[in-house]
């Protein structure tokens, strides 16, 4: 736990240092660009840093192989840690960019309990008395903020990979590029399902919802950071395959938990209003399972209210009760348990050492913990 905490602090520091170097590049163009830097800092200041941690332990699974007494990050030479810290920080900046764009797509008001990026820009427009639509300005400015963060993540990744052997750098870059393509594809599939579900065969809706989980979240949140970190350290094919076998089912379990939180989560914990996924019309595995079990009238009610921008708190409570009574929550909990078990079983007999296996087990518990 101490080692993970120290890694998180190093990633925080690296992100802060990186933004400090980019601030003058932006603000010397015009002081009007200061909000881009300020909002970047805001969106990069929080979060649980799960992706950074998976990246680090993927790296450590190779770097620490055969050395159970490896020192913690604070005691290691900075030159040795610099590549993985920079790459982990690049993953966090990429994640921030994805969240900015995701909030625009979902028309979300909040992120981590604070205003989302486009709402911040809207408020700036309104308070300044500028011309035109504040909503249009907020959306356009937030898109550009997300694009800026995407570019910065790539720059920081290059900085980290410059310090590792060429073959390892190429392998890590290839995994990062694949992650970037897959999560974009997954995001498209997510918005597609919100609109195209009505024309799809009923028998395919659950599989289509699971496909969204795999590509929008599971690979990007857990599997890819693990593999990228290991690639930085020069992992071989067998080692990478073992991390993939662990990371994918755990990533699925992680997103299934997030889907439950999106419907039933406490806003003080999730940073989002309770039932936010119902407002946004997310066609998740939870919803697909509920629809399978509901009577026709209740299923029609779910379909009618899901994604309705005018949905009331009372209607959200009604849908929450329908989903709970359908048994879908229990089925999702069972799926979470089975995917976590599959992930942990994949570590058995793998080339990953006991120390890292233990840390990955702790992370598996943390990212799938019930908090509502």
From TrEMBL:
<dbReference type="GO" id="GO:0046872">
    <property type="term" value="F:metal ion binding"/>
</dbReference>
<dbReference type="InterPro" id="IPR008949">
    <property type="entry name" value="Isoprenoid_synthase_dom_sf"/>
</dbReference>
<dbReference type="InterPro" id="IPR000092">
    <property type="entry name" value="Polyprenyl_synt"/>
</dbReference>
<keyword id="KW-0479">Metal-binding</keyword>
<comment type="similarity">
    <text>Belongs to the FPP/GGPP synthase family.</text>
</comment>
<dbReference type="GO" id="GO:0008299">
    <property type="term" value="P:isoprenoid biosynthetic process"/>
</dbReference>
<dbReference type="InterPro" id="IPR033749">
    <property type="entry name" value="Polyprenyl_synt_CS"/>
</dbReference>
<protein>
    <submittedName>
        <fullName>Polyprenyl synthetase family protein</fullName>
    </submittedName>
</protein>
<keyword id="KW-0808">Transferase</keyword>
<dbReference type="Pfam" id="PF00348">
    <property type="entry name" value="polyprenyl_synt"/>
</dbReference>
<dbReference type="GO" id="GO:0004659">
    <property type="term" value="F:prenyltransferase activity"/>
</dbReference>
<keyword id="KW-0460">Magnesium</keyword>
């Amino acid at each position: 736990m101490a080692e993970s905490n120290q890694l998180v602090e190093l990633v925080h520091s690296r992100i802060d240092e990186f933004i400090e170097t980019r601030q003058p590049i932006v603000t010397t163009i015009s002081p009007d660009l200061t909000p881009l830097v300020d909002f970047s800092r805001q969106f990069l200041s929080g979060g649980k840093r799960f992706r950074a941690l998976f990246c680090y332990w993927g790296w450590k699974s190779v770097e620490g192989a055969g050395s159970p007494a490896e020192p913690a990050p604070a005691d290691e030479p900075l030159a040795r840690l610099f590549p993985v810290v920079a790459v982990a920080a690049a993953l966090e900046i990429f994640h921030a960019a994805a969240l900015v764009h995701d909030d625009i797509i979902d028309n979300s008001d909040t992120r981590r309990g604070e205003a989302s990026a486009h709402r911040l820009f809207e408020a700036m427009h309104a308070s300044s008395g500028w011309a035109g639509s504040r909503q249009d300005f907020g959306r356009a400015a937030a898109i550009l903020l997300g694009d800026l963060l995407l570019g910065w993540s790539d720059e920081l990744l290059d900085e980290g990979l410059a310090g590792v052997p060429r073959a390892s750098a190429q392998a890590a870059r290839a995994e990062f590029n694949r992650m970037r393509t897959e999560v974009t594809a997954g995001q498209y599939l997510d918005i597609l399902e919100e609109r195209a579900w009505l024309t799809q065969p009923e028998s395919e809706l659950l599989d289509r919802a699971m496909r969204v989980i795999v590509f929008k979240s599971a690979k990007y949140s857990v599997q890819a950071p693990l593999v990228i970190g290991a690639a930085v350290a020069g992992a071989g094919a067998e080692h990478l395959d073992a991390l993939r076998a662990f990371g994918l089912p755990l990533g699925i379990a992680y997103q299934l938990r997030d889907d439950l939180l999106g419907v039933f989560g406490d806003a003080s914990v999730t940073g989002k209003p309770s039932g936010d996924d119902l407002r946004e019309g997310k066609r998740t595995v939870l919803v697909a399972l509920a629809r399978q079990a509901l009577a026709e009238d209740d299923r029609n009610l779910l379909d009618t209210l899901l994604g309705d921008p005018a949905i009331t708190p009372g209607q959200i409570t009604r849908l929450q009760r329908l989903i709970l009574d359908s048994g879908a929550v229990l089925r999702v909990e069972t799926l979470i348990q089975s995917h976590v078990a599959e992930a942990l079983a994949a570590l058995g007999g793998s080339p990953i050492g006991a120390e890292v296996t233990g840390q990955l087990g702790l992370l598996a518990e943390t990212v799938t913990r019930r908090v509502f």
